[in-house]
Design a protein that fits this description.
Layout: H1 2-14, E1 20-24, E2 27-35, E3 40-49, E4 55-61, E5 75-79, E6 93-98, E7 105-114, E8 120-125, H2 131-140, E9 143-148, E10 151-157, H3 161-171
Antiparallel strand pairs: 1-2, 2-3, 3-4, 4-5, 5-8, 6-7, 6-9, 7-8, 9-10
Amino acid sequence: MRLMFAACAAVLAASPAWADYWNYKDWHVATEPHETEQDSYLTCRAWTGGDGDPLLALEVFSGDAGPPELYPMAKVQEYAPRHYPTLMQQGGTVDFIFDFDRSFSLSAGINSWINEEGLAEAESALRFQDHLVMLQAMKQGSWVEIWAGNDMFYEASLSGFTAAYGKMMDECGFSLALPAG
């Protein structure tokens, strides 16, 4: 019996799962350790959405440069069911419209592809100069509408974003502060 328990524990310890996981209202944070012969680092990720909806997500790596030189890029990630296209299409743009000022919006390009399983995926790509502006708007807002063309395809809650951002940055060893916008 002890041998069986030890074998199960060894398999679980070797499995590539998120090491730590936290919830902050509508946002989630997870870290995943990576070990190589030359290096070890953490992937730290914060997101909202999923369960059939797109994700609004951020990701940093503990070995990368961080604030104030580089801020993480918020991106929308969309995964379509088998035999269906994504709503976000290659070469198009998505617009982020925030609740606190409907006249303020940010636009991002779209990259889309078919993954190795034959499923359509797409994600937005903000311009570098918009990374910090997007994070500041997310901190200020309660929700953000995400539009592809003339269709709003997702409304992301920002409830818990500031705490999730802080935890993600702290876990990967970066400053939690977001300068005022």
